[in-house]
Every structure is written in structure tokens, then in C-alpha cells.
Design brief:
196 residues, mainly beta, 8-stranded parallel β-sheet, 3-stranded parallel β-sheet, globular
Length: 196
Amino acid sequence: TSIGNTAFAGCTGLTSITIPDSVTSIESEVFYGCTSLDSVIIPTSVTSIESYAFAGCTSLGTVTIPAGVTSIGDNAFYLCASLDSITIPASVTSIGISAFSGCTSTTSVTFQGTSVTSIGDNAFYLCTDLASITIPTSVTSIGISAFEGCTGLATVSFLGNLPTIIGTDTTFSGIAGSATLYYLQDKTGFTSNSIG
């Protein structure tokens, strides 16, 4: 069962919602532009959050992505400007283009496991309050401008070898000028310019 495309899009008076356990997919733009939505409970039955599902939910302060979710679609949480923290469960294998772009209040991003293999273009673009990020060993590619404009990003840590960084000039462009790169001694691919 899924909640169909644009089902609640533009419902600016909607403040909270509990998604029933029967739902397995949150389709595109379901809650797009629900600017007053500040609380959402997603059941563990959900396996996918599609493109723009919660985009423009500017009041959404916290959301728990359940352990069953395997993919976070393009722009899924785009411009969720009040979202304070993001936890990526171990089940997620890919983070879509601009999935969390413009989440300007996000201070932390936590990867719970080592299943994510790709971080899409602009995935965390302009997450200006993000102070640090630890990239798990499973990540093999990081897209163009994935962390561009994260002006508060002071610490970037890699647990595995350096992933393929697409668009090396922009991926970490605009992060804190004194940002520090950390990686394990036995890992490969790193240079003093790995993050720009």
C-alpha cells in the first residue's frame, strides 16, 4: 500500500500526521509544501520515501526514518529548513539528488550502518549548520556539490578508502576554511586536497 502522489500536497494547515502500518511507500510529493507540518510518524513498514515526499515542509523539526527504508528519493526532504538532525538507518543504500538540500538547521547527520553506497548530487547542499560528517566505509561515490555551501562543516571523516568524488571542485566547496579531513592510516586515495 502506498500514499499516492501529491495526496496532501499544499495542505498548509496540516500540523501532524501518523502514517498507518499498512503503508510501504511514501510516493512523490505526498506532503510537498505542507509548511505547518511539524510532526510525522513513519511506520517500520515503509521501505521507500520517494522524490519530494516532504519537500518544503519548513516546520518539520524531527523525523525518524525507519529501519526498513532502503532508498531516500531525490529532493525527499528538500528545504526542510527546521530539520535539526538526520539519522540514516542501516537499511538505506542510496541517498538521492538534493535529498536534504537546504536543511539549514540540521546540525548532525548520522549513518547507522554501512549499507549506503552513494550520496547523490547536492544531497546536503546548503546544510549551513552541519558541523561534522563521518562517511561510512560502504560509500563508493559522492556526487557533485553534495556538501557544497555547508559553511559550518569543520570536520570531514572517512572510515573507508576515498570514494569516487564526482566534481571534485564543488563537492565540498564553501565549507569552513579551516575544515579538517580525517581518515584511517591504512586507507587509500587521500591527499591534502581530497576535500578541496
